[in-house]
Amino acid sequence: MSPRRDPEPSPAPVAKRVPTERTHHGDTVVDEYAWLAGKDDPETIAYLTAENAYTEKRTAHLADLRGQLFEETRRRTQETDLSVPARKGGYWYYTRTVEGQQYGVHCRRAVRDRETDPPISLDGAPLDGEEVLLDGNLLAEGHDFFALGAFDVSPDGRWLAYSTDFSGDERFTLRVKDLTTGELLPDEVPDTFYGTAWSADASVLFYVTVDDAWRPNRVWRHTLGTPSSEDVVVHQEDDERFWVGVELTRSEKFVLIDIHSKVTSEVLVIPAANPTGTPASVAPRRQGVEYTVEHHGHRFLILHNDGAEDFALAYTSADAPGDWVPLIEHSPGTRLEAVDAFENHLVVTLRTNGLTGLRVLPIGGGDRHDIDFPEPLYSVGLGSNPEYRTRQVRLGYTSLVTPDSVYDYDLVTRQMVLRRQKPVLPGPDGRPYDATAYEQHRDWALADDGTRVPISLVCRTGTPRDGSAPCVIYGYGSYEASMDPWFSVARLSLLDRGVIFAVAHIRGGGELGRRWYDQGKLLAKKNTFTDFVACARHLVKAGWTASDRLVARGASAGGLLMGAVANLAPDAFAGIVAQVPFVDALTSILDPSLPLTVTEWEEWGNPLDDPEVYAYMKSYTPYENVRAVDYPAILAVTSLNDTRVLYHEPAKWIARLRATAPQGDYLLKTEMGAGHGGPSGRYDAWREEAFINAWILDRLGRA
CA nearest 609: which of 621, 597, 620, 619? Predict the structure, then answer.
């Protein structure tokens, strides 16, 4: 099972400066590699470039395999494709992809007489009468990176507000296009964030900007046809724990300004017909109380956790918000996650027993009911539903073996129609995709404190349970984010080579409700790491795999998880993939000038002011705890322009690993023109995934 290794030793990092010292709560820490934070320093860029060259050299023997994996993903993907159109007003809106092109083409087509079902193009060809609103490929010309932030058509269908990012730092330039003439207005706003909202008459556009720490803190009002220098701040959030967002309700009656920290929220409303009006609070913020607002007729629907750990649904008057009248009482173990309002129905997104679900509440009579789904493991949620007056809603459904599927569900008759399942074309063996060739399982590990932790698994049908199969175990475990089952074309290349894919639903995520999240944050954060190790040990004990056939993978906060378990249980894994990993967490959380730091204190704790938090974080943060032990092979992948997890965290981590445990095999790969999500074009993203999967297969002896 031993993978091929290049005997050449790893290059030692060049410590070009005197190490930096910091002292907090009487503790002095020396950071030998703090100089790598100098993004504009030519020596930093030279170092990262040299690391990339070294990684390419060390993985050169995998070039053919990378090409195979990329080609398998490409062959299985219908490259020229078209999404199921969603109706809004007199148009069907959809996105097309074209073979050979990296980005989507955003389009619409007028609704024709008596046309109720969405027009479908099975071969991905343009619809007859199509109007191209925005072609991402044209916008991306001349740029190595391209991403859309806003894509917002005005209520009357005349204007398109869109924003672009060409570096990956998630700072967008906002523009407005006249869809009747195809011309761009002179209106242009640089350095905006996600989130826009139109006024009812489409004369005003609301948008968001960030502060010096790149925290979204201001909502602005822009009047079409005027220079951005005349824009007005509608709300400025000065409490650094909170960030802001803006949106238009589905009813198009109110502009919502969402203000929230990790544990507290407040919503301000502006009538969309009176965009210059003063924002009014639906309910003043109270520490620890979270709520969201959805407009429905004469009322605001309130999804909240006031005395309801897993949230409850209530309503209050839209004219004079006050007391909250219950609609769905709190039910421990059933986490209410969202409510969507339509004229005659409400649809509540929830999760129970670790699975997502949808509950329909008819207005004015009729039985409440949950929508049933057949598979034991799946993920379901509402899709694009821009129409308020409708009896039909769009659903998205997938599982570990079922490709992404789009359904329309009739809220009255309860009939569900499959509009389209994402095609999976024949693989290298020429056979059509067959879901029965794969099987999915739910297993449970026992954590150190006796807690049962769910694991989702997928593998080829008939994969042996004698420990001989290689396995990849994936984890995240932060921010109440749930790793619900998802389908991946690229993953098929692993499964077809006999690899099992497992997802550890560890504490810190939201799979089993709010308590599951609370038990994996702040001073309980180590549960996230010990849960993951328990899942890895269980897979071995249960015969799914063996420790020398197990590779761990995680990204962002899941990259923190990877670094922590490398220190906690280096013997449990044959390899670790850490993507944009938050591995120098203590250093970052100690610096309130960094993007997102202050807003993160309610997730991790505030080590600046609290010595207990400082000591606790220092005891687990990966960079602080590198030891002279036998680590598994580690591949760290990062992006130079990432503003969420700065590139120097994994760069410093790999440098310290090499210096402290030099017998190990550590690689660093930095995308020099991308952000937190990695390469932006779909072909570039497939190549990145092929690079990672080739490294994984090499570690598993399946290269």
Answer: 597
